Amino acid sequence: MLAGIMLSSAPDFSSAQEIPADSKEAAAEKADSYSYPALTSDVLFSLIASEIAVQRHQSGSAFLTLMEEAKKTGNPGIARRAFAIANLSAAPKEASEALALWSKLTAGTPEAEVPAAYEALRSGNFDAAEPAFAKYLKTQSRPSVVFQQIFASLNGQRIDKALPLLTSLAKPYEASEPAVDLAICSVAVQGARRDIAERFARSAIKAAPQNPAVIRQAAIALMPLEPQASADMLKQFLKDSPEDSATRLIYAQSLLAGKQKAEFTAQAKLLTTKKLTGTQWIQLGEMAEQNGEPKIAETAYSTFLKTEQKAPADERNLAYIRLGFLSENQLRPEDALSWYEQVTDGKYYVAARLRSADIYQKTGRPDRAIAVLEQAKPKADEGKIAITTALSQLLNAANQPWQAYDAMQQTAKTVGNAPDFLYSTAMQADKVNDLQGVEFYLRKYIALRPNSSTGYNALGYIFAERNVQLREALRLVEKANTLKPRDPYILDSLGWVYYRLKNYEKAKQFLESSLSLRYDAETVEHLLTVLTQAGDRAAAQAELDKWAAQHPDDQSLPTFRKKFGLK
After folding, report:
1. Distance between CA atoms of 223 and 270, rounded to whole angstroms?
2. Is 324 within a domain?
3. In terms of pTM, does the model score above 0.85?
4. pLDDT tens-digit readout, 178-228
5. CA 547, CA 558: separation in Å to the nearest integer?
6. Is 359 helix (H, G, I), strand (E, B) or coil?
7. Residue 66 domain flag
8. Diameter of the chain measured on Cα atoms
């Protein structure tokens, strides 16, 4: 019951990166060289549960558990772990709360300088933070974990100013602790410091010259800033390890990043003859597409499908989708359709149905296009809306607006609060002259977005256009004007409502204000209507002459002249 309560009220740490369990901070151990109270079995159970929650990406729940136990036991190590989780989860409010508790629980002890150093770091006082961190790092068996916490505390800010502190702290570990070197390299890339980034990337490789994982990580970290240096590192390693396909794939990636198209093509062709893992084939295919190599991409995706038949469905579906796109781009619509038909569920299902419908429509088979979408069974609301929106467009193009409206109404019943789709459904109701439907869907839209002018303006204008509920139309459009003053569309609506109310002077004022902001044919037509109804034909002729002078080839000119009896 307690775990359930904690989980339901936990803060959302959904943006969390991977959170390491520092061997000196793990739930079952005392942290570092500091002396903490012994853990009871109940507390130990809670701490283990919190670590399991972290591994399940439920860091918010873990944070709450740790904070509760830290307060109950007065154990600073538990507060420190709570800070670590919140800090690495990019949850600054919770990190501050845990940091304050950690500081409180360590008051008067040697450890107190550590939370104080984090406070100094977060406030930008790097000089004050350095001595405590340097001392603290000496107590750690995994200094890279502390560097991760330091980077997280910076939260992507003041990187350039923090780099001197970071490089100074990292100096004792340079070329001996590759994890620290790689971490500094990544931060230097964020700070656009090529010299520091390359220095620490090379230090990581120096620390582990035969470790392909370190070399790949160093190259990947450096690649955004120095793709050539990244490529050189990988090329050198591949001279001694030519069969390391994983490293060769990263090498190809660095060539692509450095826009070395010919060199990339050579490596990509070579990779198609190697044994890659499932996702590596996908990565190779995507890179080949970026480099304009459709044949290599097709080979990569097809090989993946042949060799990874037990791969997760969405990975296989991605390959089907990419092969479909490639077939479309090479003007092979039937091949594309056959690939898309393989996608029968998962996150690419909707995209496959939409692409199939588009192919049928473009190849002169609108009935097949409509059938594909009518038979589609998307599960998520987003997919239902996408399918129905495309279906309504096809039905409208086939002169079947009522069928389009029916489809939209059915979907509107099942998708819950989807204001944009409700608005689109209201516009379809307007198209089939279902005023009751227009009002129903726009009222729902307004209820969901009460501070948006769009719904008020649309409903008010439609009432005015049909010459019904004019007082309500005025109230709605005035509300829209309050929410979004000086909007030409809303001013046009106000002018049209006042025209319907036969207040021609006010109608003229608002329409002229609209035209001063956006000079368009519809508002000109509205103004011509008002002026002719008010009996001011001279002003109407002058307005039409002005429009003709600025838009001599506009197709509306003959219509305006005939409709209003003007020259």
Report:
1. 21
2. no
3. no
4. 988 888 888 888 888 888 888 988 998 898 888 999 999 889 988 998 999
5. 12
6. helix
7. yes
8. 97
What's the CATH number where 561 sits? 1.25.40.10
The pLDDT of residue 197 is 85
Vertex 477: Cα angle to 472 and 483 (nearest 5)? 130
> Domain range spanning residue 151?
1-155
- Kindly state the DSSP code that residue 348 receives in the 8-state scheme: T
User: What type of residue is 110?
Assistant: P
Close Cβ partners of 375 (under 8 Å, ≥ 6 residues apart): none
Alpha helices in 309-380, H assignment, sequence order: 313-329, 333-340, 349-362, 366-375
Token readout for 103 is 């500081």
| Segments of the chain scoring below 50 in pLDDT | 1-17, 19, 22-33
Q: What is the pLDDT of residue 138?
A: 87
| Rounded CA separation 238/567 (Å) | 81
Spatial separation of the C-alpha atoms in residues 364 and 332, rounded to whole Å? 15
State whether the Cα torsion 470-475-478-479 is positive or negative: negative
**Assigned domain for 213 exists:** no
Q: What is the pLDDT of residue 7?
A: 32
Q: Residue 331 falls within a domain, yes or no?
A: no
Q: For residue range 80-115, what is the model confidence (pLDDT) as tens digits?
A: 889 988 888 888 898 899 899 999 998 888 888 888
Alpha-carbon torsion (47, 49, 50, 55), positive or negative:
positive
DSSP notation for 380-427: SHHHHHHHHHHHHHHHHHTT-HHHHHHHHHHHHTTS-S-HHHHHHHHH
Kindly state the DSSP code that residue 109 receives in the 8-state scheme: S
What pLDDT is recorded for position 517?
Answer: 94
Which of 112, 134, 155 is the endpoint of a domain? 155
Burial of 195 (0-12, 13-18, 19+ CB in 10 A): exposed
The string of DSSP letters for 255-279 reads: HHHTT-HHHHHHHHHHHTTS---HH
How many domains does the chain contain in total?
Answer: 2
Cα separation, 399 vs 404, whole angstroms: 9
Residue 17, helix vs strand vs coil: coil
Positive or negative: CA dihedral 470, 473, 479, 482? negative
Measure the CA dihedral 365/368/372/375, to 10°.
Answer: 160
- Quote the CA–CA distance of 183 and 166 in Å, as a whole number: 10
Single out the residue in 155, 180, 212 at which a domain terminates. 155
Tokens of 259: 């826009």
Report d(CA 185, CA 192) in Å as an integer: 10
Start-to-end C-alpha separation, the chain: 82
User: Which pLDDT score is estimated for 183?
Assistant: 86
- pLDDT value of residue 261: 96
